[in-house]
């Protein structure tokens, strides 16, 4: 299964946030990332915010065991 994530360190800002959020489901990842952006970074839930967050999603690269 492909796991996606978003890393707050990729976004410039006044708060030095080091949170990374991982999820198997892209919609779940988006909802949690939006809530984080609203609560921690005081953003408004807008289509533009959601689009920016989705564009920042990355695929987790796992090393072989």
Give me some keywords for this one.
65 residues; alpha+beta; 3-stranded antiparallel sheet; 2 helices; DUF1059; DUF1059 domain-containing protein
Characterize the structure shown:
This protein is of the alpha+beta class. It has one domain. It has two helices and three strands, in the order ββααβ. The protein has helices at residues 26-41, 47-55, and strands at residues 4-7, 20-23, 58-59. The longest helix has 16 residues, at 26-41. It is globular. The two termini are 16 Å apart. The mean pLDDT is 92. It holds the Pfam family DUF1059. InterPro entries: DUF1059. It comes from Candidatus Muproteobacteria bacterium RIFCSPLOWO2_01_FULL_60_18. This is DUF1059 domain-containing protein.
Q: Please give the order of strands in the largest beta sheet.
A: 2-1-3
Structural shape: globular
Overall strand count = 3
* Low-confidence sequence ranges: none
Radius of gyration over alpha carbons?
12 Å
How many DSSP H or I helices? 2
Strand content: 15-25%
N-to-C series of helices and strands: EEHHE
Broad structural category: alpha+beta
Distance between the termini: 16 Å
What proportion of the residues is helical, as a percent range? 25-40%
Protein name: DUF1059 domain-containing protein
Organism: Candidatus Muproteobacteria bacterium RIFCSPLOWO2_01_FULL_60_18
